[in-house]
Design a protein that fits this description.
- The complex is a heterotetramer, with two copies of chain A (about 250 residues) and two copies of chain B (about 290 residues).
- Chain A contains seven helices and twelve strands.
- Chain A is of the alpha/beta class.
- A seven-stranded mixed β-sheet of chain A has the order 2-1-3-8-10-11-12, with helices on both faces. A three-stranded mixed β-sheet of chain A has the order 5-4-9, with no helix packed on it. Chain A has a two-stranded antiparallel sheet with strand order 6-7.
- In chain A, α1 packs across α2 and α2 crosses α6.
- Chain A is globular and about 45 Å long.
- The relative contact order of chain A is 0.17.
- The mean pLDDT of chain A is about 95.
- By secondary structure, chain B is an alpha/beta fold.
- Chain B folds into two domains: about 220 residues, Glutaconate Coenzyme A-transferase; about 45 residues, no CATH class.
- Chain B has eleven helices and 15 strands.
- In chain B, the strands form three sheets. In chain B, strands 1, 2, 3, 5, 7, 11, 12, 13, 14 and 15 form a ten-stranded mixed β-sheet that branches. A three-stranded antiparallel β-sheet of chain B has the order 8-10-9, covered by helices on one side.
- The radius of gyration of chain B is 20 Å and the shape is globular.
- The termini of chain B are close together.
- The chains are: A alpha/beta (about 250), B alpha/beta (about 290).
- Chains in contact: A-B, A-C, B-C, B-D, C-D.
- Chains A and B meet through α3, β7 and α4 of A and β6, α4, α5, α6 and α8 of B.
Chain lengths: ~250, ~290, ~290, ~250
């Protein structure tokens, strides 16, 4: 992942944290960690405050009640946003972190569901992300539902997916319809290139015809201020937890 | 010492075949020393409970054939990617995998800690994690206001009930114990819950210190009392190549070496042979040091 | 400071009439400073949740008419005997009393902490504590093996379900906070559960210290993170005449003096007038000191 | 309470802890605290070990998980014995810690049930004690059941009352029959004096006729070793938590 592409993804993820009070980032999640810390730095610059909890960090993790505290904290309604990736993600917002094949007879095993089967229900804004944007990842229907995109009426579910950011574009998740809407194309991508590499159908922004691509916004590039923050501040902040990723950030 | 101080080999000999063994995640002090000793002892048939995830420890135990069954929210080698022996064993059907989610492990251990037969948990409804757990139940929340029907919903607030998990053994590594058997765990309170929930708690430590860890109120908050500790063994560097919070950093180069080696069964066997030879040497050295205790 | 540092009067002004206020037992740092300020402010209609018991704090609040309802496993003045204003108010029917048992309070707060609508609890079956709690339910344990009938029993393992208790406010006194709003609580972890479960947490402290209480791993385990802390007020001696773990001993003579005075309503009124006059003087002094912050 | 009588009650309570591994004592319970510490000292003298947890003590309380730990610990089966007193105790082993009168319209209010409604179910040996032995305390039927003496079949109840020690005598609790059996008389008491002051009916030891009292054992007096331990060791151990009571013990 080149530095410029990294910066674009980090800022695209950070854009989805505007106006929030508290974001948590799970373990082994360098991209979201950088995004959360960038969003915090941006908030501070305008006198706001974004509490940023980065699991695996010593500096940015205030928890003192053990491994359960993130989950309890989410259930208490104290966490506004969380990031989830997926081995497979489908057009209904379902995420698969367990494997491909006919469970339990899997052909390929992923690490496991982590907290997704819980946090995707309880955190108001669950931001899905996956650098690889291909028909291998973005499938018509996931082989195993670690976390469903939507739930039947009557299911206790204050939270759920709100967005999906990939290496090619950004989607918003339409919870009522249980479908993604393409919201922006990264530089160099077209509606056609996204369709070609996406295994599921998705909506276009209101007012967009199905044919045209000209009017679909381009994902905002990092501002000069963002790049400065990433290089001069965020690289240092993530270095404690993700030293190799920090080097990439320092080079944007 | 109130709690027996054993060698690591003696410690793992207390783990009966078939035991359900709870282990902490990579960031919370798994006992790699006990892991090596279990493999060296030829223990088999263990059921492993990751609290709530595991990494190199699970991969070693699975690759070496110590483990029949794994319950975990995830198994992976952290930044070093998937856990190769775990992945291979699942695809081969060599182990029974009980997929779960992190908060379910924590909650089910808290149920055991509180002597509850079950505990409810939000989320999960509609997931395949739930669908493939016949031991979990779904009921209508008896405290739902008005019920789902009144709200025009299809059902009356379904909620999952998890049975308590009571491990036979909680096994971990910690920076220090005192001579009473109190163990310093700091902020790693999942270790407290594990120990409370488990029938026996076996701990390897960097060192045994003089004086009670409970004596100073400033640090007592980070102590697991001896009441819950079955036995302790001194194993300096016992978390290596993982890190130990408040004590040592992870050895990333060694973990990367393992991740590469374990991609193939042959590579894993070679790595393991080397590891056990080193461990045997270390055990001899520790035994010699122990003779002076 | 991330978390606002207020005067005690400003702190208690955040407690709305009718609020459910959770307070710790006498041995765990009740804020007597906030208690005096609540009385001085003329607050009424509070519902008090003792976690799980209370003493002089509850008795003062009840005697002064601040409290309409009390949920507690017990109210007493420790070694100084029964709580006279509590006892008188219950017998006179002046407050609603929700009798409970210690582990039910802890469990119901843990349910709120975990976002569970309810939590099961053993015991209680056949007690009048249960009989007079229409908000508690009894179900047959859905995980009972074979069920009670198979065992020849009259029922299939009945078990109590408690609804979660989510206090509006958790209110306590602690030795210190740092400028970020992290609060040192040591081993008094019921304070952690209270704060996790509550919508707002208000803390009076002996002092505010420089540097983060989370910086040193040796002491971080005893810290309630600022994330849960709504506001802090400095109130030296804020637990007096009760003690504060790790900081000060109880003033037994003063507690005995209170216990004697409060036997009659007149005696209580006289004690209270004196206490509030002293508190007003202390507040003026604190205000003057505060002006320099 | 004179020193000699205190010593007798402490040793009578301590006698009920023989062979156990772990005893816990609640807050504001000086007599049981001294008994537990005496039982521990006795065990040590013969090379055994009795874990003694005294709530309210700094020295003898290892708990680090807050107020819930005692209850969780009991539910885990780690505590063999606990002491409960009662404002009223009846012949079925029911304990009332809430008040007298027609609840909630009480004529006299006690402090409250504390953990009794739970611990009486879960701790294998719940030792009831009350210095005052009168028809005011030992009633035919308690006005409020904080903790029932027995439970219906099918109720999860690994524990329950095993004994009752008063200022006049000691009873064992017969769980199957839900009744007390008089096991010993304190010096100076007779079956008749106990009956006179007891509001409930109770059983006599096996083989005792209802008429005779001669063969009912006398409660064992503290041994010289017990008295020495109380004066020289236990007084000091309880002083941290119960300074006034410690002075009484020091004078035995």
């Amino acid at each position: 992942m080149a530095a410029a592409r990294t910066a674009l993804l980090v800022t695209a993820l950070a854009d989805r944290l505007r106006g929030l009070s508290c974001v948590a980032v799970g373990a082994t999640s360098p991209l979201p960690a950088a995004a959360a810390l960038l969003a915090r730095a941006r908030a501070e610059a305008v006198g706001d405050r974004l509490q940023t909890i980065v699991l695996g960090s010593r500096q940015h993790n205030p928890f003192t009640d053990g491994g359960r505290e993130l989950f309890d904290c989410a259930a208490q309604g104290r966490i506004d946003a969380f990031f989830l990736s997926g081995g497979q993600i489908d057009g209904a917002g379902n995420v698969n972190l367990v494997g491909t094949g006919d469970y339990p007879a899997l052909t390929h095993r992923f690490p496991g569901s982590f907290g997704s089967a819980y946090l995707a229900f309880l955190v108001p804004s669950v931001i899905l992300y996956r650098e690889e944007h291909s028909r291998r990842v973005l499938v018509p229907r996931v082989d195993f539902v670690s976390a469903p995109g939507t739930s039947a009426p009557g299911t206790y579910r204050p939270g759920g997916p709100t967005a999906l950011v990939t290496g090619r574009c950004a989607f918003a998740f339409d919870r009522a319809r249980g479908r993604f809407t393409l919201t922006s194309l990264h530089p160099g991508e077209t509606l056609e290139s996204v369709r070609e590499h996406t295994g599921f159908d998705f909506q276009l922004p209101e007012g967009e015809g199905r044919a045209g691509t000209a009017a679909i916004p381009t994902t905002p590039a990092p501002t000069t201020a963002d790049l400065w923050l990433l290089r001069e501040r965020i690289a240092g902040e993530v270095a404690e937890t993700y030293p190799r990723f920090a080097a990439l950030i320092a080079a944007v | 010492m109130t709690v027996p101080a054993l060698t690591v080999a003696e410690l793992v000999a207390l783990i009966a075949p078939g035991s359900l063994v709870a282990v902490p995640p990579d960031y919370s002090g798994p006992s790699l020393a006990a892991t090596r000793a279990l493999i060296a002892a030829g223990t088999t048939g263990l059921r492993l409970l990751a609290v709530p995830t595991s990494g190199m420890q699970a991969d070693l135990l699975i690759g070496a054939g110590v483990v029949d069954e794994v319950e975990a929210a995830a198994v992976l080698l952290g930044e070093h990617g998937g856990a190769p022996r775990f992945t291979a064993a699942v695809v081969a059907g060599a182990i029974r995998m009980r997929d779960t989610t992190c908060p379910a492990v924590h909650a089910a251990l808290q149920a055991a800690e509180k002597g509850l037969p079950f505990i409810p948990l939000r989320g999960l409804i509609g997931s395949d994690v739930l669908r493939f757990r016949p031991d979990w139940q779904v009921i209508d929340n008896p405290f739902a206001v008005g019920g789902g029907a009144a709200a025009g919903a299809a059902s009356a607030d379904p909620i999952v009930l998890l049975p308590a998990i009571r491990p036979d053994v909680a096994l971990f590594h910690a920076p220090r114990a005192d001579r009473d058997g109190n163990v310093w765990i700091g902020r790693r309170r999942e270790l407290v819950t594990m120990a409370h929930a488990a029938s026996a708690t076996l701990v390897t430590v960097e060192e045994i210190v003089d004086g009670s860890l409970l004596a100073d109120e400033a640090t007592a908050a980070g102590v697991l009392p001896a009441l819950y500790v079955t036995a302790v063994a001194v194993a300096p560097g016992g978390a290596w190549p993982l890190g130990l919070p408040g004590h040592s950093e992870p050895d990333n180069a060694e973990q990367a070496r393992y991740a590469r080696a374990a991609r193939s069964d042959d590579g894993f066997r070679a790595y393991l042979a080397e590891l056990l030879a080193d461990a045997a040497g270390a055990a001899d050295a520790a035994g010699a040091a122990d003779a002076g205790r």
